[in-house]
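Quick one:
INPUT:
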């Protein structure tokens, strides 16, 4: 590595030498994380490619949204540590932060909640879409199909070159995803769909759509409501993970936002990604009661246990 003067300023460069090559690659520094080597001109200047399966050492874009370091246990949204957001903010504030880059004022939050709340219902014809699936269909299969089908119903928010349409599509996805997820669950257990309620919070409304039934009143447990809101906050964004990268790749072709998110759902389904949460839930069901926890910990540590 060396430092060279460019336009009167010092810049760091990494020099590649060998096989007749002497090429300087700029080093760029982010606000957090390691420096990166800018290789965009590598092929044009040297005729060489890089080889990095899985992008384990490659940043695919510049982002101001999220930073994550799994080894250090660090997660930041727009520069805010997740611990602070989980303690002092709710999911609606976090969603606004991710979309706009700043936490909302009181007035901005009220308007954002209003706009999201009044987009939670699905087009009525989409309700009939579910009947085309088997009752035992995997929920993620249903999510992929229904989310992709949104493009057939909301034509005023499919042009990604239009900033207003992008915002409308974002609002619709934030608002309708819990509705779609709850309907997928209700369909799988043979219960009627429960429409969203505008008087409930984002997390409370999701619990209502999941667990209420028409024949009796359902009161949202505030402890579960707070826990669900925090779960939404913790899972809101995880930087350039597999599903995010899938959405960006699909979006690079100019595909509509709903199709791109559907592709991301398909990727999330994988056992090495969101499917790992499903495996964890199955493990918890298998453990059953707290008194069996030590047994499972011992099995997990036992290298000779085939089920570990």
């Amino acid at each position: 590595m060396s430092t060279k003067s460019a336009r009167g300023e010092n810049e760091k460069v990494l020099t590649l030498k060998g096989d007749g090559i002497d090429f300087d690659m700029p080093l760029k520094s982010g606000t957090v994380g390691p420096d990166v080597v800018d290789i965009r001109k590598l092929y044009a200047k040297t005729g060489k490619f890089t080889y990095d399966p899985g992008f384990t050492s490659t940043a695919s874009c510049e982002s101001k949204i999220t930073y994550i370091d799994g080894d250090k246990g660090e997660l930041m949204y727009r520069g805010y540590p997740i611990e602070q957001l989980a303690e002092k903010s709710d999911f609606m504030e976090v969603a606004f932060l991710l979309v706009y880059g700043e936490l909302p004022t009181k007035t901005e939050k009220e308007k954002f909640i209003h706009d999201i709340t009044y987009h939670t219902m699905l087009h009525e014809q989409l309700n009939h879409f579910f009947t085309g699936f088997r009752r035992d269909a995997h929920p993620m299969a249903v999510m992929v199909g229904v989310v992709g089908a949104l493009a057939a119903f909301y034509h005023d928010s499919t042009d990604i070159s239009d900033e207003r349409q992008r915002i409308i599509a974002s609002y619709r996805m934030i608002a309708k995803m819990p509705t779609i997820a709850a309907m997928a669950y209700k369909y799988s257990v043979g219960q009627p769909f429960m429409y969203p309620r505008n008087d409930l919070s984002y997390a409370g409304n999701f619990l209502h759509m999941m667990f209420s039934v028409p024949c009796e009143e359902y009161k949202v447990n505030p402890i579960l409501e707070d826990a669900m809101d925090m779960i939404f906050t913790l899972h809101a964004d995880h930087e350039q993970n597999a599903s995010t990268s899938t959405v960006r790749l699909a979006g690079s072709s100019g595909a509509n936002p709903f199709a791109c998110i559907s592709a991301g759902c398909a990727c999330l389904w994988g056992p090495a990604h969101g499917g790992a949460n499903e495996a964890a839930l199955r493990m918890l069901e298998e453990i059953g009661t707290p008194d069996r926890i030590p047994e499972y910990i011992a099995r997990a540590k036992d290298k000779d246990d085939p089920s570990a």
